[in-house]
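Minutes, methods subgroup
Present: GH (chair), OT, SY

1. OT presented the first of two proteins processed in the latest run. Sequence and structure tokens recorded below as shown on screen.
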Amino acid sequence: MDKFSASLVADRREIVFAPTVYKFQRFAELAQEFGLNERDVVLCNASVHASYMKDLGLKCQFVFRDKFGSGEPSEEMIQNMYDAIPYDSYDRVVAVGGGAILDLSKLLGCRRPDTVHNLFFKRFPVVHEKDVIAIPTTCGTGSECTNISVAIVKDEKDGQLTGRETKLGLVSDDIIPNRVCLIPELLRPLPYKPFACSAIDALIHATESFLSPHRKTMTSELFSEKAMDMLLKGFKLISEQGEEARMDYLDEFVTASFYAGIAFLKAGCGPVHGMSFPLGGTYHVPHGESNYMLFGAILKYYDEKNPDGEILKFKELVARILGCAAKDAISTLNALLGRILPLRPLRETGFSEQDIVEFPKSVEINQQRLMNNAYYPFERADMERIYRECY
């Protein structure tokens, strides 16, 4: 176990949770509650601004994330954001968006680094200096309440650039937002596929937190179980009534995502995320979908290796919600998720047979923080086997 992961395991705090949490029906209510003004920088997409903010006459500094490019945050995107928003031009950050926007806002709330690369490779300290208000427009990342900001960065080995890219998480309690605001109506414009990827990602957060062998606490278990219950009932609703049924369940979806975020604050995510990070970093597969591509195979691996441990409790929980036998819980869950979002094989992303060998090497070097949370340990050959199975 690396030094950083060991420090996380040694942390005996039952829960790490800093924000004050609000729930509003409309963005206008939030604007009034917090007195948004010219010293606030609002980071959002142009479409969100047009739909929910433009007619309010706010004097904030609006910065559209769209101008920095699409996809997940990269070193270049973060630096361009820094250049576009002078540090002395704002006192407070208001982030309205999905995981990328929320992760970027956490960086805006901290002291500016010498380089983005050094920040993510822990060569520059993380120091929280400005308030951050986080408002999610998806129901998956949980980023509104977590202590991690994820970016695609230039990969290193022994301090030297490899010429490849990977996804890294910057972890620090100093980047947890000061306030979280849940506004279910902000999820309405979300197209179905991003919604499905997002919600499945929340389920994976809850599952990995529940199965975390070193860091699961009674608090993370409580929030994991509640999140899984709400999400799986929502998936059943969609499976039975169709995609539009989600519109009557948005409050539950955004709340469940938030609960899953609380769960993995302390318990952490695991190998599903660790093994998907190079996939997202290399082929720019959306985060939720890249996790989903590996999720079912990793659950089956756990069940094969140690069927009578925490995975049994997980199967019993899933069985109660889905109405099946515990022995059939994983296959029934995978079938349900397949009805929510068809599962693509890795090869459709550009993933190659060579990646089956190379990706595990990158995971071993860069993702020990996540791999150390495995319910059952992974050797490199085990990772190769799972990549091949999903190929």
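2. SY then presented the second protein from the same run.
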Amino acid sequence: MKLDNFKSDLVILGRTGLLALQALWAYKIRSLFVIISVSLGIASLTVIIAAHDGANQKAEELTESFGPDAVLVLGGDIFNRPVGQRTLTLSWNDLKQIKRSLPGTYLVVPLRSVSGKTIRYKNKNWNVSRIIGTSANYSEAWNWPLISGRDFTQADVTQALKVCLIGETVANALFSKNESPVSKTIFVGSIPFTVIGELSHRGYSGGSGTSLDDRIIVPLTTLAQRFGADRQYFRGLRIKYIDAENMQANVDNLTSFLRHLHKLKPGEPDDFTILSAEEVQQFLSTLKGGLTIFLGVTAATAMIVGGFVLANLFYLSVSERTLEIGLKRAIGASKGAIVRQFLFEAVLLTIIGGLLGIVMGIALARVLFIFNLIEIRLSLKIFLSALGAAMAVGLIFGLSPARQAAELDPISALRGDG
């Protein structure tokens, strides 16, 4: 008995679906308006979910790579910098004093960079984006493993040797797939450098959107001698602490210590910026929140507009299909059957719009990802959420026209008075 009932329900559902498709095709121009309106909203919703999940994943990756036991100190107040404020405020004296006097630190690594140059290996050229100057233990300080080779030593820095580490992008541009770059000589401009290590893949910067793999790293002293970098100041300091459980206390101590070294008076703003993993997460959360709000309003507006378009077109459809409705009621169709028929049509329309919107949204998200505007992550949640939203629009905005159709008097409908 249950099997027979199930088969009967499937037959009814199939007939209802076929009638719905015939009705939608008869009014295909109107149906197209609804599909386009709904698809725009679903496309925005798809981008929201993909970007939101991608931002969460990126925040976790950045926090892991940044390190819970580390801070980055940058010269100048990068968030509230007045016009004309110096950005090179961190000196060798700061570095020495932090190493000597600040408790809890076990690595203090300076950072300076200059614009990229053309680099060459044999007959291959590449325009590298940045040349980074640093000191010993760069890989350890930045939690950035080496694929092969070794990190800088203090001797490399002290003697200003012409050695370098290269990122993945540079390695792929200059060397063949099975060729190790270690011990090879490359030319940065006209200066020969020996590659001593190849860094693993790191990806894009969360803030600037630039590739972290498109760089070469040289000793800071070499950068000063060979590329004219400032010999007294540098752009940043990477500091790692023994105790990662009390990072806020570490940051507070470092702030007080640097203010003392820079002779800043009470009330004067800091001339440096300290970033920890927590600040990185907060910054990404702000960006993610702004993107979610913007796209959320866009998605909600588009779907509401699509819903109103659907409702108005279905009200018009009811007035034009009074004879059809009257015939169905006259041969025994219940009010519930009429409601189900119109709701089925509405939901079918919005599901088609939803599927189109998912395709549009994924395509848009990939374009934004290619241009490094957002990080995306595709998942089953996108598909389920988008279809759920599309069905909700169909049910909510299609219910009132469906009820109106069901309430038509069969005799009046057959006479065309409905």
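Chair's summary of item 2: Residues 19-62+283-415 form one domain.
Next meeting: continue with the remaining queue.
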